[in-house]
């Protein structure tokens, strides 16, 4: 019975419940377009560290998300669903992983960024077999440098869901707010299809 309940919980995390509140555009990302991405080196699930300046793909796609749950461990309480845009990190990351080959057709590398500790990100990445790298910005370097939108939950600072497309270290596209998160990958692919001639 215990294994059955864990499996059910795992399945629930991969789907978005109906009736979630939609996030609104509060203007918190308006300043980002045209800014330059700093050369951060952050802890990664694929390597001991990821140096953003040494990624040689044409496009860097940086998607920020609040917190991805590890089944049976750090699943948020019901109040999490009441925060506009908070729910959906698992289905979003699953869809990003599923379409990583489609992104490579446009010479795009995708990276997920959260304030979660790297051990949590590594555990869930291994469990879900994500193809993309997830990095931990636990010290909020992106927030301090670029003023990435955040919110607080249970005393923790978390990133709001946001995606930056970077070309030659410059932010050329900002997606914010993002809803529903599991379909966001198609917005990214549509934009790349129109813009890929620049690479």
Walk me through this protein's architecture.
With 199 residues, this protein is an alpha+beta fold. It has a single domain, classed as Glutaredoxin, CATH 3.40.30. Helix content is 28%, strand content 22%. The strands form two sheets. It has a seven-stranded mixed β-sheet. Strands 6-7 form a two-stranded antiparallel sheet. Mean pLDDT is 89; it is low at 1-9.
Task: Give the key terms.
7-stranded mixed beta sheet, 9 strands, alpha+beta, Glutaredoxin, two-stranded antiparallel sheet, disordered N terminus, 199 residues
Roughly what percent helix? Answer: 25-40%
Distance, first to last CA = 53 Å
Question: How many individual helices?
Answer: 6
Estimate the mean pLDDT confidence: 89
Instruction: Output the structural class.
Output: alpha+beta
CATH evolutionary superfamily = Glutaredoxin
Quaternary state of the chains: single chain
CATH C-level name: Alpha Beta
Low-confidence stretches: 1-9
> What is the chain-wise order of helices and strands?
HEEEHHEHEHEEEEH
